[in-house]
Amino acid sequence: MTAPLRMGTRKSELATTQSGLVAKRLTELTGRAVELVGITTFGDVSRANLTQLGGTGVFVSELRNKLIDGEIDFAVHSLKDLPTADDPRITLVATALREDPRDALVSSAKLADLAPGARVGTGSPRRVAQLRALRPDLHYVPIRGNAPTRIGKIAAGELDAVVLATAGLRRLGRDGEISQIFEVDEVLPAPGQGALAVECSSDRADLIELLGVLDDPRTRTAVTAERAVLSALEAGCAAPVGAFASDDGHILNLTATVVAIDGVRSVRKSTSGPRLAAMDLGRDLAAAMIAEGAGTLMGEQAH
Ligand SMILES: NCc1[nH]cc(CCC(=O)O)c1CC(=O)O
């Protein structure tokens, strides 16, 4: 009998749920059994604000080290948590199972109906800046912790609303608490939001072939374009950068934005082109945004 594949995952409920979905799909497609290996990352332990942790990949590096050591065969991450910098020892072998990419408001009211001065929990500069453009009169409160902890602050009376990814809420079965899903023209999601990433060691040609069955080609092109924007802007997952692409099988439509933290000034641009030119589309769009001052807007909030 073939030994089960060892799948590394963070231990949060969302991470294990997402990893479980990938494991189930892999077993369906290949007949291979999968064993789950729970791993604690620096991002799980540190209580620092994510924007202050310095550098990207706080949720990812430990899992990558274990892939390189051979302790695990593959790892599953939220694609939006992956750093854009390429590590040649690691292969992004599949981009899979993209859920609704949009951001959601968890509250008893829609954003427009919250009372002036209401407290909205989110630590993401991207979300704060875009929400300020819609409701400049609300208080945006930085929060951390997993989704259930964040939502719990509403019942505890600390917050009136929290903003989270619809994808995570659906996967946790908490989407019944959503009062509003933001359209992408209101709040542009983070690059890669809603999609899962499967990584393995670049040395393992056997696994690259086996795990490749998990890849969804349209998700691959969309997230390639979105992440190319982020990479060309030299920004990480804590930057005030939104990007969303959709691939109809021929044409890729891509929109990206950089928003100043005051929510007033922003650069937003769209483009479209052949799906196989995803990387160039993203890179060219970022260059056009920089020409319109996107770099200056990002620089302002770096420190
Ligand atoms: N940065 C944390 C993170 N990484 C992925 C998700 C949700 C799932 C996803 O976007 O795929 C979340 C929480 C959130 O933003 O609500």
UniProtKB/TrEMBL annotation:
Obligatory cofactor(s): dipyrromethane
PROSITE patterns found in the cross-reference section: PORPHOBILINOGEN_DEAM
Modified residues (S-(dipyrrolylmethanemethyl)cysteine): 237
Top EC class of this enzyme: transferase
GO molecular function, one term: hydroxymethylbilane synthase activity
Domain Porphobilinogen deaminase N-terminal: 5-207
The entry's keywords: Porphyrin biosynthesis, Transferase
UniProt-listed Enzyme Commission number(s): 2.5.1.61
CC cofactor note: Binds 1 dipyrromethane group covalently.
Secretion signal, residue range per the UniProt entry: none
Ranges for domain Porphobilinogen deaminase C-terminal: 222-290
Reaction(s) catalysed by this chain's protein: 4 porphobilinogen + H2O = hydroxymethylbilane + 4 NH4(+)
Subunit architecture: Monomer.
Other noteworthy facts: The porphobilinogen subunits are added to the dipyrromethane group.
Function: Tetrapolymerization of the monopyrrole PBG into the hydroxymethylbilane pre-uroporphyrinogen in several discrete steps.
Record-stated family: Belongs to the HMBS family.
NCBIfam families named in the record: hemC
Name assigned to this protein: Porphobilinogen deaminase
Lineage: Bacteria, Bacillati, Actinomycetota, Actinomycetes, Streptosporangiales
Gene behind the chain: hemC
